[in-house]
Design goal:
Layout lengths: L2 E9 L2 E10 L4 E6 L8 H11 L3 E11 L7 E3 L1 H17 L8 H6 L4 E3 L4 H70 L5 H15 L2 H17 L7 H21 L3 H21 L4
Parallel strand pairs: 3-4
Antiparallel strand pairs: 1-2, 2-4, 5-6
Helix pairs in contact: 1-4, 4-5, 4-6, 4-8, 6-7, 7-8
């Protein structure tokens, strides 16, 4: 399910900023972008996400934004600088070079100038608290989207139910028309007909073309979808399964179709089911 949330808080000389983004995913996939020194927090952050969400690809980014007036404390690693100078002088002698040793170049060498280290562990409680605020905001965003999706699914279920009602009302007419059509075709092909045997065969054919069971199951699936909305548990995977069942019944209706109206209704059902299936990918 898609969503975005941002949360920030003040720290000495700056701010903690969390940005959390969520996109559709069948399972929970949590990814973190953390500054150096804060990667040890990742397991605890993942645990916080898993307590609240069960689906979605969630990218979380932590930024530490320091005030421009903040002057970092630096120190000189003098023993290391002396060692570098000694090696530079040795190289000059070996190569008979008259090159000069540039002090600024020595200072740019990694490890010569040591900057003040961020006391990461001291910030952990504030970072965790702010992350909980961010994912709470994400949950609210996803809940609003969930309400919109639920409304759409209810509307689609109503449309499916309307098609089922129409098909059920027309079922006796369809079966009677099929029976008459088959009887006429048989009469044109056979001179002497065993009427009893013909009736038996027509009853068997009618049973094969009877879709009342499929219509019953479609109504049961609609009830299951609507019942899912009343619970507090994650329902995405359950709805995924129900869409497979919906699709199975629609395919059976299409295969049993013996008139153009039934075929058209089966196509309409498959379109509605596919629309629901696409949106259910967004449901937790």
């Amino acid at each position: 399910m898609t969503g975005f949330a941002r949360s920030e808080a003040s720290i000495p000389d700056g701010r903690i900023v969390w940005e959390v983004r969520s996109v559709n995913h069948r399972y929970l996939d949590a990814q973190f972008r953390l500054p150096e020194g804060f990667r040890a927090m990742e397991p605890e952050l993942k645990d916080l996400l898993a307590r609240r969400f069960s689906r979605g690809k969630i990218d979380s980014t932590l930024s530490l934004q320091y005030e421009s007036s903040r002057i970092p404390q630096v120190s000189l690693n003098l023993p290391f600088a002396k060692e570098l100078i000694h090696h530079a002088e040795t190289l000059n002698r070996q190569l008979a070079s008259s090159g000069t040793i540039d002090t600024l170049s020595i200072m740019r060498w990694p490890g010569v100038i040591l900057e003040e280290e961020i006391q990461a562990e001291a910030l952990f409680p504030d970072i965790l608290a702010e992350f909980e605020k961010a994912i709470a905001g994400l949950a609210e965003h996803r809940a609003r989207e969930g309400e919109r999706i639920q409304k759409m699914l209810r509307n689609r279920c109503d449309e499916v139910e309307n098609i089922v009602v129409v098909m059920r009302q027309r079922l006796p007419v369809i079966l009677d028309a099929i029976q008459k059509r088959l009887t006429e075709r048989v009469r044109t092909l056979v001179d002497n007909i065993d009427q009893d045997r013909l009736e038996q065969e027509l009853v068997l054919i009618a049973k094969k073309l009877d879709v009342s069971e499929e219509l019953d199951r479609l109504e049961a699936h609609i009830a299951e979808v609507l019942a899912s909305f009343s619970g507090d548990e994650p329902m995405g995977r359950r709805l995924d399964f129900l869409m497979q069942e919906f699709n199975r019944e629609a395919n059976t209706l299409a295969s049993k179709s013996a008139d153009t109206d039934t075929t058209q209704h089966a196509i309409e059902l498959k379109v509605l089911i596919e629309q629901m299936r696409e949106q259910i990918q967004n449901v937790e």
